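Possible regression after last week's pipeline update?

I re-ran a chain I had predicted before the update to compare outputs. Posting the input and the new output here so someone can diff against the archived version. Not blocking, just want to make sure nothing changed silently.
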Amino acid sequence: MQNPTTRETTRPWRNGSSEFASQTYMKTILYLEDDEHDIFFLERALANQGTDLSIRNVHSLSEATAYLEGDGQYADRKRFPLPCLILSDLSIPGGSGFQLARWLREDPRFRELPIILLSGSAREQQLEKAEISGANCCLEKSSDFSELLARINDLLHAHKEMDH
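New output (post-update):
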């Protein structure tokens, strides 16, 4: 049975195609966010861009680590594939985006995974703390998703280049 606090969102978006892409070709983003409005608007922005990304949403630090480690319900990697990018709010139940970034950078399995942190107001102090924690970038939340989508694309492209 699925944990009631875990939102399973798999939306295979394809460039102008009404056909759903096979999960094997999907890139998965793990989105750590507890605000349903923010989740909805990111999903909509990705759908409008026409990408082949799948969003998996978790609501807390403990859910994120369980997902990444494949614990409990997340052991089924067909339903819960390892992500190619982490997107996390700074303020999350059970911790912070900074804590998640540090945990990821300390674990050899996830050390190279791109991380984007999102903040209600990206002040200089937060940007510095994000860099120290190991995040690739920290962006201010906005209703204009163009910068976030550009960063996601850049990081995924750079991560793909590192794998080859």
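Follow-up from reviewer: compared with the archived run. The beta strands are 27-32, 53-58, 85-89, 91-92, 95-96, 115-119, 137-140. Marking as no regression found.
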